Amino acid sequence: MTPQTVLAVxxxxxxxxxxxxxxxxxxxxxxxxxxxxxLTPGERGHPRLDAERYKAQKIAEAEAFADGIGARVVVxxxxxxxxxxxxxxxxxxLAMLVRDVRPDLMLAHWPRSMHSDHTNASxxxxxxxxxxxxxxxxxxxxxxHGVARFLYTENWEDAPSFEADTFVEISPEAQARWTDAIxxxxxxxxxxxxxxxxxxxxxxxxxxxxxxxxxxAVAFSSGDLPTLRRLP
Length: 232
Hints:
Elements: E1 5-12, H1 15-19, H2 21-29, E2 33-40, H3 51-69, E3 72-75, H4 88-101, E4 105-109, H5 116-132, E5 149-153, E6 166-169, H6 172-182, H7 197-212, E7 217-221, E8 229-230
Parallel strand pairs: 1-2, 1-4, 2-3, 4-5, 6-8
Antiparallel strand pairs: 5-7, 6-7
Helix pairs in contact: 2-6, 3-6, 4-5
């Protein structure tokens, strides 16, 4: 993977860690800069812990994960799981972060999801990309920045109509870093509602690797008509 600055925008802590984490780890290993954004902590996702306690745990897990793969993480911890608004206030806040980070590539949720937060996060990422590059929009605060590439991630909750057309090969070292880092998140280990997230996404890297002709890969969609290609 050509080293670049990658900004991955998820609705909750853990979303991009799972769907894009191996690629973010690979990018760091290749000399790039990777930044995770969680638009909410995802604090309502534990059946036994109250939201405030789980929020603190999730933020600590996010920081540990980012450290484990060599990335940076930003959490919008004042926004709430299940109530993420797709409005210009949040989009503009994200756009200013885009201008700070100045990514070559943005990653976001596929816009059709069973989870409204994921759908709204996708809308916010697209709007933020637009606002970050919009001439005359708050240019006194930060210079505008146009993001060259924008891809959608493959989250299992966002499967309807997702068509993979872009593949990134994942090296054994990047896979190992991701596995070690994601194992520090309780929900990913299946300790909240029992879903085997780590097994699911690890197996997905194998199946996507088969399509890409490599041992392991992560898939994305450009939103265009599907054609198989590798991200250089």
